[in-house]
Design goal:
Blueprint: H1 2-18, E1 85-93, E2 98-107, E3 110-118, E4 124-132, E5 136-144
Antiparallel strand pairs: 1-2, 2-3, 3-4, 4-5
Amino acid sequence: MFTQTLCVLGLVLAVAVAVPIDSYGPSLISAPAISYAAPKLLAAPAISYAAAPAISYAAPKLLAAPALAVSKVAVAEPYDPNPQYSFSYGVTDHKTGDSKQQEETLVNGVVHGSYSLAEPDGTIRKVTYTADKVNGFNAVVEKKGVAVVAKPALAVAAVPTIAKLAVPALPAITKIGYAAPAYVASGYGAHY
């Protein structure tokens, strides 16, 4: 359908371009008569095809699935009504000065623990805590040692030396005087 529409539009466009247009009327321009003859078509040889053989397919037969008795058994996971744990660790790095320890235990639903660490000012902070469902989290913070305040070191930068370079003599510059331009009042702005 699209091809037919495109051919018809092409034919209409070809006719519109081929016809001369005279804005003063048809009497002043006489165009030669243009005629077109359709090309002769050669007869195509007769071709015949045999009918395709009829092929039929049968739908596959569905078999009934065997009925299986499935029963789900819920297995109870082991439950500890009084879970308990205990852990601790410690780090001491003499190269960086990092030092920290932690220990924690859970007995009868109450967590007891403490941790300590070296502060940047040289003191050691120790936190001892307990936590349970009734009282929540409670901590006691202790600070041991005397804080050392280090004065910042002032960096003194070396002042670079400035080397004097020999500059070749430049030619003398002569001053040229110019006269101020003369303003001529004309047209707009003559009153200034």
